[in-house]
Design a protein that fits this description.
Blueprint (H helix, E strand, L loop, with lengths): L1 E6 L5 H21 L4 H16 L1 E10 L2 E8 L9 H17 L4 E8 L12 H9 L7 E8 L16 E5 L6 E9 L3 E3 L3 E12 L8 E8 L2 E9 L3 E7 L4 E9 L12 E9 L3 E7 L4 H11 L4 E7 L12 H4 L6 H7 L6 E5 L9 H12 L3 E5 L21 E8 L6 E2 L33 E6 L3 E5 L5 E8 L2 E6 L5 H4 L8 H12 L9 E7 L2 E7 L9 E3 L5 E3 L3 E4 L2 E7 L4 E6 L4 E6 L18 H6 L4 E3 L7 E4 L11 E4 L5 E10 L3 H20 L1
Parallel strand pairs: 3-4, 3-5, 5-6, 6-33, 8-14, 15-16, 15-17, 17-18, 18-24, 34-35
Antiparallel strand pairs: 1-2, 2-36, 7-9, 9-12, 10-11, 10-13, 13-14, 19-21, 20-22, 22-23, 23-24, 25-26, 26-30, 27-28, 27-31, 29-30, 31-32
Helix pairs in contact: 1-2, 2-12, 7-8
Length: about 700
């Protein structure tokens, strides 16, 4: 039970103040005039004013509250390296015991861990402390002790605190670390053109004198080692890189780890660069003017990334007017330049209804064969002339053709259909749903064609067939290159909307991109798409079954994935990546790599213990910093607010003596009649004295 005297005025405080002023003035005037009873009148006025102020005795019943100490454990990734876990465990056990021995003190523990799905946020130590402190009354907080390496990422969150905030700093003064930082890397790069990446290898901490200024750097692209060399540390480096294929390229830069450095988690950097082709170069040679020639031209010209060179033979062999060919041409046909000097500059060559006319010498056609074997792409859109005596099949070109013509042309209406293999091939997969019409399988709602070259497939894959299931579209690989044969010259009927048309533009677009080796149209493909921590793995194949791929995690562990066939030729799986870094996929034949998050999270950008980021808060709250290496468990002292809160081996806590009021009672100091009697007595006394 605590008691105190308080005032509960019977009139307003303003009137009381006015009364005090009047009393002082009147008393002063009476004293100045020398009235004999002025002091008695002053006492009477004072008694009356005290009665009006109504002093009372307040009795409070209080329940003392404990003082709260926050013990904040930084359990982020950087606290798990070297011997820091042991330092943290020792400090936690010792401080729990010492705080528990303090009378009327309560311990509140706060633990901060990294959320791997939001790893870029780093160590939010002060955010966690502020949230914990907001849940209690500020007048109960006696202090906070943070066990951390000081590498926090929210130093601006907490500018002040109700009590001292001490830091028990983990780590050792002899720690050192080496890390690799990519300072500049493009998101896109042109295939087969050199780009420059900027990176830097930094040493931090107490670097041993014996450590060389050179570091061994290894560069891998899509999991394959490209180069290894020595580079200088603490210097900006410019590395020339050349991408060899389109699509995503995963580049990893790794420096050899030293057994004495703090961690090797920041010895790698992963960069993903999208490889794009610069102006795909296409050569289109049309054997004669016809409606389909415009279709090919419109398709290729509609793509701004395509440089098209188009030549059309204007005069057929059966039309003779005794005019030299060179005089009929709009420009001279540069056969030597195109098929001898610059043939390797083209990404795709299309022969559209072309037949031998003596314009292309056998040596030029032989160059086309070698061009294909060395990685080029050739598309043959055949017509009736392919079955004649001037057919390209009667030249060296026959070596790379996947189908052999029977020299018979079928002139009968038919609907092009996708073959069983075609339903699995990315060029034709899903075309049966063209224009949103969900037609039955193998019966797409397409318009008819009326011409088909009769052929027999000898290699490659037949992805579409026509009349009587005869080959219509055959795709093949020859050496490093690709060849496609379209056994009809009437694809243009679809573009005209005949009998409803068909997916002509989509088919030809896919066909052209497959021949130019676009990664998304590879028929045998193992790929991964990363969305945050979710990874979608896709395996495409023309086979009925596949080998389950193995996935290698960044920590070296390997697991076999179970894929599910979601559509013909397409198997998928979804995993939740619980690690950041470089992952590898392999099924024995195909290999793919992908990166989840940064190779070295923000926690490992700086690993040497340093409490400088917390220095402003420490100074503001009169707290201190002690290294766990020097004092494993600091002593605790009780100090008054405003005093220095730390020493070489101790932290100070401020007792707050907070309490909870349970009951309040008030009693007047004197009864009203006593005040009245006192005032009347003084007034009568003053009257008698003055009357005498």
């Amino acid at each position: 039970m605590d008691s105190s005297i308080v005032f509960s005025p019977l009139i307003s405080e303003i009137l009381l103040i006015i009364g005090v002023i009047i009393l002082i003035c009147a008393t002063g005037f009476a004293a100045w005039r020398g009235l004999s009873g002025w002091f008695l009148r002053a006492l009477a006025g004072g008694v009356i004013l005290c009665a009006l102020a109504n002093p009372v005795v307040r009795y409070e019943e209080r329940d003392p509250l404990s003082d709260i100490v926050f013990l904040v454990e930084d359990a982020s990734e950087s606290q798990k390296i070297s011997d820091r876990p042991e330092q943290v465990a020792t400090a936690l056990a010792g401080l729990r015991e010492k705080i528990g021995n303090l009378e009327n003190f309560e311990l509140r523990e706060v633990r901060i861990e990294n959320d791997i799905s939001q790893d870029e946020t780093g160590s939010l130590v002060l955010t966690a402390l502020a949230n914990a402190a907001s849940k209690v009354a500020q007048n109960r907080i006696a202090g906070a002790i943070i066990i951390s390496d000081g590498r926090i990422h929210d130093a601006e969150i907490l500018q002040t605190f109700a009590a001292p905030v001490h830091i028990l700093q983990t780590g050792k003064s002899t720690d050192w670390d080496r890390r690799i930082v990519v300072t500049n890397a493009p998101a896109f790069a042109i295939v087969d053109e050199e780009i420059t990446l900027n990176l830097r290898i930094e040493n931090d901490g107490a670097v041993p004198v014996s450590e060389s200024e050179l570091a061994n750097l290894t560069i891998t692209i899509d999991g394959e080692v490209q180069s290894q060399f020595q580079v200088r540390t603490d210097a900006d480096l410019e590395l020339p890189i050349t991408l060899t294929h389109g699509g995503m390229n995963v580049l990893q830069f790794t420096i050899a780890a030293d057994e004495t450095e703090l961690t090797d988690r920041n010895n790698s950097a992963v960069v993903t660069i999208n490889g794009v082709r610069d102006r795909l170069r296409v050569l289109l040679v049309s054997g004669e003017p016809y409606a389909g020639g415009r279709t090919w031209r419109n398709l290729l010209k509609s793509d701004s990334a395509v440089d098209l060179v188009h030549f059309t033979i204007l005069r057929s062999a059966e039309k003779s007017n005794n005019v030299p060919v060179r005089e009929l041409s709009l420009i001279a046909f540069p056969t030597r330049e195109l098929f001898l000097d610059k043939i390797d500059d083209f990404d795709l060559i299309i022969f559209d209804k072309y037949r031998r006319r003596g314009m292309l010498r056998p040596a030029y056609l032989r160059n086309v064969v070698e061009y294909t074997k060395n990685g080029g792409a050739v598309l043959f859109a055949t017509g009736p002339d392919f079955a004649g005596v001037n057919s390209l099949f009667r030249s060296d070109i026959a070596e790379i053709l996947p189908a052999v013509p029977s020299f018979d042309v079928i002139n009968q209406g038919y609907k092009p259909q996708i073959s069983q293999t075609g339903h699995r091939h990315p060029v034709t997969q899903g075309l049966e749903n063209w224009a949103g019409d969900l037609a039955p399988e193998n019966d797409p709602n397409w318009g008819r064609w009326f011409r088909l070259l009769d052929t027999n497939v000898r290699s490659g894959h037949m992805v579409m067939h026509g009349f009587d299931e005869k080959p219509l579209l055959v795709l093949d690989r020859v050496g490093e290159g690709r060849v496609a044969m379209l056994m009809s010259d009437q694809a243009w009927l679809w573009s005209r909307g005949f009998e409803g048309g068909g997916p002509q533009l989509e088919l030809l677009r896919r066909l052209a991109h497959w021949m130019m080796k676009e990664p998304e149209l590879e028929e045998e493909q193992l790929s991964a798409q990363v969305d945050g921590q979710q990874v979608f793995i896709t395996r495409r194949s023309l086979s009925e079954s596949i080998q389950a791929p193995d996935i290698t995690y960044p920590d070296g562990e390997t697991e076999t994935l179970e894929l599910r066939e979601t559509s013909p030729g397409r198997w998928t799986a979804r995993i939740n990546a619980e690690q950041n870094g470089l992952f590898e996929l392999s099924d024995g034949e195909l290999k793919a790599v992908f990166a989840v998050g940064p190779a070295a999270p923000i926690e490992f950008e700086k690993t040497i213990a340093d409490a400088s980021l917390l220095r402003p808060l420490i100074l503001e709250t009169s707290a201190g910093v002690i290294r766990a290496q020097d004092v494993a468990v600091p002593n605790l002292r009780l100090i008054r607010a405003g005093r220095s809160g730390a020493g070489e081996n101790w932290f100070g806590l401020t007792p707050r003596n907070a309490y909870l009021t349970l009951d309040v009672r008030q009693t007047p100091m004197l009864p009203g009649w006593v005040w009245l009697l006192m005032a009347a007595t003084l007034i009568v006394w003053a009257w008698r004295r003055e009357g005498r």
